Amino acid sequence: MKSSVSIIMGSSSDMPVMKKAQEMLEKFGISYETKVLSAHRSPNDTVDYVNKATQEGISVIIAGAGRAAHLPGVIASHTTIPVIGVPIYTTNFKGIDSLLSILEMPSGIPVATMAIGEAGAKNAAVLAASILSIKDSKVKKQLLLHKKELRDKVIQANVSINKD
Amino acid sequence: MKSSVSIIMGSSSDMPVMKKAQEMLEKFGISYETKVLSAHRSPNDTVDYVNKATQEGISVIIAGAGRAAHLPGVIASHTTIPVIGVPIYTTNFKGIDSLLSILEMPSGIPVATMAIGEAGAKNAAVLAASILSIKDSKVKKQLLLHKKELRDKVIQANVSINKD
Amino acid sequence: MKSSVSIIMGSSSDMPVMKKAQEMLEKFGISYETKVLSAHRSPNDTVDYVNKATQEGISVIIAGAGRAAHLPGVIASHTTIPVIGVPIYTTNFKGIDSLLSILEMPSGIPVATMAIGEAGAKNAAVLAASILSIKDSKVKKQLLLHKKELRDKVIQANVSINKD
Amino acid sequence: MKSSVSIIMGSSSDMPVMKKAQEMLEKFGISYETKVLSAHRSPNDTVDYVNKATQEGISVIIAGAGRAAHLPGVIASHTTIPVIGVPIYTTNFKGIDSLLSILEMPSGIPVATMAIGEAGAKNAAVLAASILSIKDSKVKKQLLLHKKELRDKVIQANVSINKD
Amino acid sequence: MKSSVSIIMGSSSDMPVMKKAQEMLEKFGISYETKVLSAHRSPNDTVDYVNKATQEGISVIIAGAGRAAHLPGVIASHTTIPVIGVPIYTTNFKGIDSLLSILEMPSGIPVATMAIGEAGAKNAAVLAASILSIKDSKVKKQLLLHKKELRDKVIQANVSINKD
Amino acid sequence: MKSSVSIIMGSSSDMPVMKKAQEMLEKFGISYETKVLSAHRSPNDTVDYVNKATQEGISVIIAGAGRAAHLPGVIASHTTIPVIGVPIYTTNFKGIDSLLSILEMPSGIPVATMAIGEAGAKNAAVLAASILSIKDSKVKKQLLLHKKELRDKVIQANVSINKD
Amino acid sequence: MKSSVSIIMGSSSDMPVMKKAQEMLEKFGISYETKVLSAHRSPNDTVDYVNKATQEGISVIIAGAGRAAHLPGVIASHTTIPVIGVPIYTTNFKGIDSLLSILEMPSGIPVATMAIGEAGAKNAAVLAASILSIKDSKVKKQLLLHKKELRDKVIQANVSINKD
Amino acid sequence: MKSSVSIIMGSSSDMPVMKKAQEMLEKFGISYETKVLSAHRSPNDTVDYVNKATQEGISVIIAGAGRAAHLPGVIASHTTIPVIGVPIYTTNFKGIDSLLSILEMPSGIPVATMAIGEAGAKNAAVLAASILSIKDSKVKKQLLLHKKELRDKVIQANVSINKD
């Protein structure tokens, strides 16, 4: 296993959201692998994968899940690697069920919680980069570029709204 | 294992709430056993216990948990026995975090959700009795007596408020 | 009455949701009957039906209702059979009104509460099967098959997302 | 039955709240009777009482209930008399469960919903007086006096805060 | 002024909702008049109208308003007639802002609060009929017919879902 | 009337909260007057006062109110002076009812909304100063001093926590 | 800098909302300038602009922002000018995240909070006019005209709904 | 600067909460420094400190803040170091205001959000350790010990509840 980051999601229907994390990692040049694993429908497979990933040297795990979103918490229970949780939007509770199931982890077993949906998935990748940057100066350079880009877009927006 | 019902809780601090389930089962004459098992702090032990309980013939599992209350869902993932979930009250979200983490189980793996806290724990025992009553007429008689008692208390209350 | 399960709903507009329960019961080979009965618009008919169903040997009642969703609670007041409540989605309160009217039953008279809408209706059928399985080993086998299917779908999803 | 108003509550523990309705009716000189009747624990007794009250000429029913507060709705299902609902405060949901179970009655069967708790109970009595005043000019005079009193208290408060 | 009921709304955009109240009153044969009056944009006109309506013998006022829905409360401040409030749905807060602004009237000045939107408007008319029925037996007969119709529809729904 | 600011509250029980606005205005050397006036219990007196205050040259009105907090909105309906609303905390809805009744004013008639309770009352005074400062340089100097004080306290706090 | 009001927004995507403030200021004949500045993506530029605007005599700042809407608060931290905050609607939290990030400013540094979205942006302009009117009688006249227009529209609506 | 972690809080009143992070870091043998810095009351000092900390080699920043909790976001705007946010409990909104102000950071600038209050502060330290462990095997060993301790406590709890 040569990836730095593992992206795990509870269902293939979460793919359009988690794709935002993939794209951002690719932009930063960070290697990753992607898995569908369910805390409730394939619990033993999930534990097996997390144990293997931990041993083979994955540095960060990003896990997206919806509803009673136990997946990030289950992963965090079985590893010392930093786990970043992305709550998936739900119709009935607008993703607040997913958010609370990830955020409210018990004392001692944290999950780094992101915002609900695509913005959260994208930011999960930026946070993963930020974590990797503490030991990888190339990633740090990517992050500085990323910050510059964000500012440049604001400056351009300012010009464009005053043109009209 | 000769108990009919298993009461599991995520932390010994849930005991004062889950005691209400114990008391109600005792009143109905239903045998039970009680365990502290954590979905996050002792995940493997939890799975081992659920597998054993399923094989040894427990008929109903009552599981109480708070915050990111994954315990009832984890149990339901590993057994075909009916699982009743009791959300424990929390200071920050008033138990709504616990409730949603139990209620919002994915399609295919239900947890019978009760109200938050002591009323929920008591009703979990009544529901367990109700489930057992479909094959045990003695428990059914207990439930009919229980319903009569509830009505009698209302009639007495009516007399007493009009006395004052 | 030879059905094992009774599906009751407050309005025929709840049919598209409750159909998910019918389909799941059919898949498990469990017999059922379906009724429209309103706690508010036909209260006496509702009580008459519940009394009759209880005497004729229905083992589980699934009741779906929306808004001030009193139907499951009214049913539970008149029987010792386990009652499973399915909150129907509402526009104004997103089904949270339905959920609380079912979940917050008083101490002594439980309703096994499911998630709001179709996932809840489907899980109501799985829970009904789970309850029946404590006395019917054929249903237990169906549930084990069901769990295997859930896992198989996750394994397939994993393959398919890594193909793209 | 010579009372004009009937005050019904789901439990004798609601008495301290519903007492506010009693006191206000007494102040207005309106006759009333008080009952404890439970929609869930004594459903048949509740229906019997409502039928009797309707026939004997009660003009308004005030019903207080908490949690899955079905009582006012059950009463409204069985009578054409105006029904005023008072949601009782609850620990877990701060009375919002009670409120929604009363407010969200289906189309065709209204309950006049008041605020949660004591202010609601007091206002239920004022609304009952307001309803009676459409056929009873003595009650109308009481309401005019009541409005004058409310204003006088504000004027006095104004004087007193500027004294300090 | 020969109408029995006055329907007031804060904006002509509330008309599609309040039309449900008009239709129901027409069905019951109850006379009414309709006004657009704003608590904030035409406050003096609102007070003038309420004073006039009170003197000329309107028996019930139905007031619909959205957002900071002060209209029903302002009306109730200036009259002893029963005031029924209909919260109008809003995009940002789903009508909960309207609901709380109507429900949470101070102690001493009630507004009979209905559900948000069309169901609330329709039920406001039924409640108005219910209030008028305490002095008008023709309206009472209409209400009994109305209840019979509600039950008949449930019975028909039951037949139709079991036909498919 | 020689005051610059008028502080109005719906009830004398709001005084402990609104006192925070008084204290802050005094600290800034801004003259003010205080009134108890109720939108519901003394509506005509409220309108009379607002008209008088507008004519006599009050520059800013601070209005505190709870529950269906119509007071700030009623005032804003009758004047062109900037109106600052302070939502008072409530037991049932934690002041969210008060907040929404003030915040959700209709298009065209704004109320400058502050946070719930004491922090809101204090900030209402700072905002009033901020408004007055656009024509009064003495008040502007007071605000600059105030900002310096806020920063100084942070610097001191930093020293003190690192001493322990 | 000769503008009286500065309109700042966190992103050019907020322009359709903030345009409502522009339109209203234009109607009142109040000069303004518009900027895109981000509290998070261009923090130093934001501070530089606020310092410059304060020195050059802007009288009121209107700031619109969404999600973790820090922009109005950051601005208020760097100036004594009154700052009006407009929460932008968000999909996940319906703008309540934006609202709370603006409303809940710490004691000592107020932001005058408006309703979420377009109504809030429009009202921000009316409040800005209201603030300017304390030193500019031309703006005061515009506000009186504005109030008359609001009332005239209600009177016309009343005529039109009774025509149909 | 030789610390690995920086703990920053918005007010010295947050110290009892943030102490939980200090204690956990001490237990893991991780060096840290603690600062009070306010996003609103000392914004320039905050930026100066973050710039200095970034240059001097701090690896992780933990920031606790309440109400409009802009502090973690402001810090994340000025650094590429991973920032962990701890929402402080508030009376009015129970910390949900703090949570949303931290969680809802815009796309591109993440803050790793923890649960509200003490559990969140403790878990922030565990997450910081988890991040450091990707380059420091001593910290990884500490985390494995920590996980063993958590499990041991559950096993002991199980023994003790079955003793009684």
Structural write-up:
Eight copies of one chain form a homooctamer. The first copy, chain A, is an alpha/beta fold and 164 residues long. Helices cover 52% and strands 14% of the residues of chain A. Chain A contains six helices and five strands; from the N terminus they run βαβαβαβαβαα. Chain A has helices spanning 15-28, 43-56, 71-77, 96-103, 118-132, 137-163, and strands spanning 5-9, 32-36, 60-65, 83-87, 112-113. In chain A, strands 2-1-3-4-5 form a five-stranded parallel β-sheet, with helices on both faces. In chain A, strand 4, helix 4 and strand 5 form a beta-alpha-beta unit. In chain A, helix 1 (15-28) runs parallel beside helix 5. The longest helix of chain A is centred in the last third of the chain and has 27 residues, at 137-163. Chain A is globular. Chain A starts with a strand and ends with a helix. The relative contact order of chain A is 0.16. The mean pLDDT of chain A is 96. Chains in contact: A-B, A-C, A-G, A-H, B-C, B-D, B-H, C-D, C-E, D-E, D-F, E-F, E-G, F-G, F-H, G-H. Chain A binds chain H through residues 59-60, 80-84, 99, 103-110, 112-115, 118-119, 122-124, 126-127, 130-135, 140, 143-144, 146-147, 150, and chain H through 59-60, 80-84, 99, 103-110, 112-115, 118-119, 122-124, 126-127, 130-135, 140, 143-144, 146-147, 150.
